[in-house]
Amino acid sequence: MKRLLLFLALPFLACNSDYTVGELPIIEINTTQVIRPDEKVRGEMVILDGGKEVLSSTIGVEYRGSTSYRVSDKKSYSIETRVGLEDRSQSLLGMPAESDWILMGHVFRATDPDNFYAFDPTLMHHYISYELARSMGQYASRCRWVELRINGRYDGLYILMEKLKADPLRIDVGRPNGDSEPGITGGYILKIDKTSGDAPVGQPLEYYDNNWGDDAVYTSANSFRSHYDIYGDSMTIEPFRPPYHDQQWLETYFLYEHPGPAEMTYAQRQYIQGYINDFETALLTDDLSGSSRTYLDYIDLESFVDGFIMNELGGNIDAYRISTFLHKPRSGKLRFGPIWDFNIGYGRQGRVPWDDWICNYNDHVNQDAWMLPFWWDRFLEDPIFTSAVKARWTSLRSGELSDAAIFGLINDTEERLVQAGAIDRNYNRWKTDNGNTVNHAGEVDFLRYYLEQRLAWMDSEIGAW
C-alpha cells in the first residue's frame, strides 16, 4: 500500500509549483528511517524526466562528506541502487549502469544569518571541471543536473554524479590477482586524503557534527606512509601517531581505496608500498639536468600533466594533498586522478594567490595538517615535466581549453539552470531567516573574472617555460 501511494503521488509532484516540468530531471527519495552519515538506510528512489517516471528503485542512502557534512546546512548524499539488501547496477539518466552514485549539493551555511557562506555559490565548480577533464580525454565523473526532494521536502539543485570507484567505465584498473607478477601489479586505487570514511559507525548523530579527529586516524590497516617528508627528507618519526600530532604536517599517507584494506593480501600491500617508494626515490635522486629520468619508469606522465593543468586552472586548493586519487592498472604505470572535489576552487580560497601555482601551497601555508608531498616541487624543477606541460597547454588552449570552450560551457550551463528556474528555486530554499542568500548572476560573473585572470596568468607563465 505504501508503494502504491508513492506512485499515486507522482503526478502531483511533477506538477508541483516547485518545478517546471520537463526542464530538469527530478529525484524523489522517500525513507521511513533517519538518514545518517555513517551507514546507509533503506529508501525508495523515483526519477522523473520530462514529467515521466524513468526509474524506480530501492536504494541505500546516507549523508556524505567530512568537512562539508559538518559545516553545511544543505547536505550531500551517497546512494546505492539495490534489490532488497543487495546492490544492483542501474543506468541513471543515461549514464553507464552502476550501483554507487552521489547527489552532490553545495556547501551553504545559514545558521548565523549575518555570516552565512557558500563554498560554491555558482553550484557549477564540479560540473565544469569534470566536463572539461573528459573533453581532454581523461576520465572524470559523469554528471547530470537534477532537483531533489527528500520525504516530500524540496532540497534544491543537485548534481547526480558517478562515485569514483574501480569499474571498466569509471576507473578502469581491474584488481590484483594473486601475489606474483603480473597479477600483483594491478589494479590499485590509492587516495591522499583524510580518513573520515573510516569514522566509527553507530554513534549518536551529534557525534558526527564535530568528529574532526576522525579525519586523521591513519593506521597500518587503512594506509601506508611515504618514506619521505614534504621536503623530500627521510622520515625519522614513527608513523601512525595520534591525530594532529605536532609533526603530522610533515607526513604523506596513502589510503588503500581499491582493493579495500580487508581485501588486500600482505604481498599486495608490500607491492604497492614498494612501487610508490621506488617512484619517490627515483624522483628525488634523478639528475634533473640530464636527459634521462628513471622516475618516468613509474608514472604515466600524460595523466600527471593533465591533472596539474586542471587543478591549477581550477585553483583547486584541496588538490595534491587531500581528495587526490592515484591509480595503477595491471602491468601499467601509476596514473594521476581522476580529478576530484573543486567546491572551494575557482578563486574561492584565500590561501594561495591567483598569480602562483596551487602546488606551491607549502610556500603560503604553515604546518597545515595536510601539506603537499614533495613531488610537485621536483616536477616544476624538471625541464622534461615543464616541457610536457607547455606542449599540452599550448595544444589545449587552441581546442578543449580555449576561451570559447571554457566560457561557452559556463554560459550554456548558466543559461540552462536559470531558464529552468532551478537557481531561483534552490536559493529560495537555501537562504537565512532574514532573507540573505546568494546573488547567483554576480557569482557566475566572478567565476568568469577568475578564469579570465587565471588563464592569462597561466598563458604567461607556461609560455615562458
Compute the number of helices: 11
Overall, the morphology is: globular
Poorly predicted runs are 1-22
Radius of gyration: 23 Å
Number of strands: 15
Helix content: 25-40%
Strand-pairing-aware structural class: alpha+beta
Q: Please give the order of strands in the largest beta sheet.
A: 1-2-3-4-6-10-9
Oligomer: single chain
Order of helices and strands: HEEEHEEEEEHEEEEEHHEEHHHHHH
How much beta, percentage-wise?
15-25%
Please summarize the sheet with the most strands. 7 strands, mixed, barrel
The mean pLDDT is 93
What count of structural domains? 2
* N-C termini distance: 68 Å
Give a brief rundown of this model:
By secondary structure, the protein is of the alpha+beta class. Helices cover 30% and strands 18% of the residues.
Q: What report would you give on this structure?
A:
The protein is α+β, with helices and mostly antiparallel strands and about 475 residues long. The protein folds into two domains: about 160 residues, no CATH class; about 210 residues, no CATH class. Strands 1-2-3-4-6-10-9 form a seven-stranded mixed barrel. Helix 5 packs across helix 8 and helix 9 packs antiparallel against helix 11. The chain is globular and about 60 Å long. The N and C termini lie far apart (about 70 Å). The N terminus is likely disordered.
List the helices and strands and how they pair.
Layout: H1 2-15, E1 26-30, E2 41-49, E3 52-64, H2 67-71, E4 76-83, E5 86-87, E6 100-104, E7 108-109, E8 117-118, H3 125-135, E9 143-150, E10 153-162, E11 188-192, E12 223-225, E13 253-258, H4 266-285, H5 301-313, E14 324-328, E15 335-336, H6 361-364, H7 375-381, H8 383-397, H9 403-419, H10 422-429, H11 440-463
Parallel strand pairs: 1-9
Antiparallel strand pairs: 1-2, 2-3, 3-4, 4-5, 4-6, 6-10, 7-8, 9-10, 11-13, 11-14, 12-13, 14-15
Helix pairs in contact: 5-8, 9-11
